[in-house]
Amino acid sequence: MPLITPKRFTIADYHRLREVGLLQEGDRIELIRGELLHMSPKGTAHSVCNGLLQAQLLTLLGNQGAIRSQEPITIPQTQSEPEPDLVIARGSLRDYLDHHPYPADVLLAIEVADSSLDYDRTVKLELYAEAGIADYWIADVNSRQMECYSQPYRSAQGTFAYQTRQIVLVDQSLLLPGFATVALDLATIFP
User: pTM of the entire structure?
Assistant: First the structure.
């Protein structure tokens, strides 16, 4: 009896599914390692935290970077197009008219987590580390803290992770990667 294997999609296949209308703009689907994955629904705390974080980043950075909220980044080597809750990319938003940011464009990827915390600490963390995204943060809504990961590496066993993990509490602030003098006050982003 032959084994049934799931259909893997390339990034081009994924874009074609959108072009022909099989996937709609509002569908909460991400392409992760060639698989179409349904994203979990956002709770109100998640939505508020994401909105407050986006507003703070826009205030702090102005036009010093492209701030994207829940928009794709393209990771060709893994056939992935995740949609981080927030990304600070090099340049301006207009630089991404022809393509979504690639890992080399991403200064910081942020996931806001309530029910998705385990997924963000495992699947997303490994994906971003493998892509070489230097800084990855998880805004843990339930614990009201930021998990900051940096220095991606590949272990001797071939898995990808980050060498450094720092926990920043709600009453603290932290510097934004790539902006040596710009600090985010966490009290302003957690509901």
Answer: 0.93
